[in-house]
Amino acid sequence: MNRKYRKTIIAGNWKMNMLASEIKPFMEQLKENLPKVRACDVVLCTPAVLIPALGRAGKDCMVAAGGEDVSCFDKGAYTGEISAAQLADVGAKYCIVGHSERRQYHGEDDMLVNAKAKALLAKGICPIICVGESLEQREMDLTMEYVAFQVKAALSGIDAAQLRRCVIAYEPIWAIGTGKTATAEQAQEVCEGIRAVIRKIYGARPARAVSILYGGSMNAKNAEELLACPDIDGGLIGGASLKPVDFSVIVKATDQD
Ligand code: PGA
């Protein structure tokens, strides 16, 4: 982390878990455990139907609500889709785009991820743009090449002013939901590489200001070490974000000097 230049963000990704009736008890437990003074922004990205309830419950403990996906279209005949305007309307401040599960199960490509990020920016929502390599790519030593390509594609046509509202999440696919975390060295190396890619496109200042998160089996035990890395500005947390105590331990782990 480098709090001098950029925001630290701990974002949960609930995926397709939790019911509306579970939000109140979850938030009560979270509130009990979260420090009132924090070194980071806290966000919970949830299925869109849960955002209004989460927004209400999260208000008095400063937890922002976010979406997990968005349509690239503005409005109209797109049955089942949810627009950025609709997410903004129910109070979403952030939204994940390009999660590897969307890329894998819903055929999302880099062009679509880019269009979704732009749709969010147009409505004042911060996109959390996910990138990351497969195990095969890592073993073939293609990690940085592939991740650099994803970052460039996702940011295509986004100007420096808009970049300030973008968050990048480096999530190696092999570490997601597997309990296999990237080592702090591996995660730092790629996050530093992502910042270098952004520096090449936008220059030193914008690159220094962009928050880059690590995601992939981050938990209450390994968060501190990962968050101590200079180019890791927070976490995108799946499994551990469903446990209020563990999630709050991760939030507390941002309080390092
Ligand atoms: P995980 O998920 O923390 O359960 O590995 C992270 C993610 O998919 O964003």
Poorly predicted runs of 5 or more residues: none
Main CATH class:
Alpha Beta
What structural category arises from helix and sheet content?
A: alpha/beta
How much helix, percentage-wise, in residues? 40-55%
CATH level 4 superfamily: Aldolase class I
General shape:
globular
Trace the largest sheet across and list its strands: 1-2-3-4-5-6-7-8
Key terms:
257 residues; alpha/beta; TIM Barrel; 12 helices; 42% helix; globular; binds 2-phosphoglycolic acid
Describe this structure in words.
This protein is α/β, with parallel strands linked by helices. The protein has one domain: Alpha-Beta Barrel (TIM Barrel). It is built from twelve helices and eight strands. The protein has helices spanning 20-33, 51-58, 84-89, 100-105, 110-122, 135-139, 143-154, 160-163, 184-202, 204-209, 223-227, 244-252; strands spanning 9-13, 41-45, 63-67, 94-97, 126-131, 167-170, 211-215, 234-237. An eight-stranded parallel barrel has the order 1-2-3-4-5-6-7-8, surrounded by five helices. Helix 3 (84-89) links the parallel strand 3 and strand 4 (94-97). Helix 1 packs across helix 12 (244-252) and helix 7 packs across helix 9 (184-202). The longest helix is centred in the last third of the chain and has 19 residues, at 184-202. The protein is globular and about 45 Å long. The N and C termini lie close together (9 Å). The model has no long low-confidence stretch (mean pLDDT 96). The structure holds 2-phosphoglycolic acid (PGA). 2-phosphoglycolic acid is lined by residues 13, 171, 176-177, 215-218, 236-240.
